[in-house]
Each structure stands twice: as structure tokens, then as C-alpha cells.
Design a protein that fits this description.
alpha+beta; tt1808, chain A; 4 helices; 10 strands; about 30% helix; about 30% strand
């Protein structure tokens, strides 16, 4: 397995463990329904920031950099400060999409590789219909191909830590052989 992916998975798993350990209260609020997804995303993002110290962790970040192939089949970096990330929906129509959380470097220098990891998040009791889960998958496929994020994580927060699931994307595809259910070892 890619050592970089192994390291990233360990950091993400650690952040999820902290979320469920330190903020268990948030999962019990509202008669066991838990707080809203944005609140959980914010707390999760705080823990991610501690693990990825050399990067910024932002939620709903709407600055866009795109890549396209030039005539020599090399990638050309383009930016548009006023344009959100465009993702095709199931009908082939472009729609604006902002990832729930991204880990990146903030820079206006087009030579920098800013985008690193992106996240789409859902709650156990707000799991949308299959069509909406497919939409999240499509977003992560696009973000890890057209927008060059190294990895994309689709995380479904479980009511309990052990019920949490993830799917990981790289180069526009789900990483094959990756288990959906997280395994927390030694209580972590």
C-alpha cells in the first residue's frame, strides 16, 4: 500500500477517534439524533488541522483551480477566483460544488500544487437516497481527477465510532480493496 495513503489514513482515523471521544456529546444531542452535519464537520476539521500542520483545513472553501491538457499532453493550471468547482451531475449538467472540507495550501501562485485532500461528509441518520450518495461519489471522482486532489474521502459518520464508514478516491476512482468500515485498533 502507498505509504502516503497509509499515513493519511492513520491521521484521518486519529481525527475521527478524537471526534468520537472528545465530542461524544455532539452525537447524543437532539434526542439521539446528534447535531447537524456542519457542526460535526467543523469539529472534525479542527482535529484535521492538528494532524496536517503544514496545510490549511477549510470548510466550504470556494476558490477554484482547474487543470487541462495542453497540446503536449501536459497539465496546464488555470484559476478563476469567482468560479466554483464545476462537477457534472447524473444528467451531464455542470453544477457548482464545494467540498465539505479540504486540506490544501492557500496560494495565488499558479505553480503551487494547492489541493491535497478533500472530504464529503454525511451523518448516519441523514444518509441520503442512493442517488445522492452517487452524487457525492461523482464529486470526489471529479475532484481527484480534474482538480488534482491527491485523495478524496467520503465519510459517513456513524452514531458510534465503530459504525463510521469511508470510501477513498484517487485519480478519479475508488481505491480498490479499501475496506469501507473503519477499524479502530487498541481503542483508537
Amino acid at each position: 500500500m502507498d505509504e502516503n495513503l497509509l499515513s493519511i489514513k492513520g491521521k484521518v482515523r486519529s481525527c475521527l477517534n478524537k471526534l468520537y471521544t472528545r465530542d461524544a456529546f455532539l452525537f447524543e444531542r437532539n434526542n439521539g439524533e446528534g447535531v447537524c452535519e456542519r457542526c460535526l464537520a467543523f469539529r472534525f476539521g479542527m482535529y484535521l488541522q492538528c494532524e496536517f500542520k503544514d496545510y490549511y483545513v477549510d470548510a466550504e472553501y470556494d476558490n477554484t483551480v482547474t487543470y487541462s491538457l495542453d497540446e503536449n499532453n501536459g497539465y496546464v493550471r488555470e484559476t478563476n477566483e469567482n468560479k466554483k468547482k464545476q462537477v457534472l451531475d447524473s444528467n451531464g449538467v455542470e453544477s457548482n460544488r464545494i467540498p465539505d472540507i479540504i486540506i490544501h495550501k492557500r496560494s495565488l501562485n499558479l505553480a503551487d500544487d494547492n489541493d491535497y485532500i478533500c472530504f464529503e461528509l454525511k451523518k448516519w441518520n441523514r444518509i441520503p437516497k442512493k442517488k445522492l450518495l452517487e452524487k457525492d461519489s461523482s464529486v470526489l471522482e471529479t475532484l481527484t481527477s480534474d482538480y488534482m486532489y491527491l485523495f478524496g474521502f467520503h465519510i459517513i459518520f456513524g452514531k458510534e465510532k465503530e459504525e463510521t464508514k469511508w470510501t477513498i478516491f484517487q485519480f478519479g476512482d475508488k481505491i480498490k480493496g479499501e475496506k469501507d468500515v473503519l477499524v479502530f485498533e487498541n481503542g483508537a
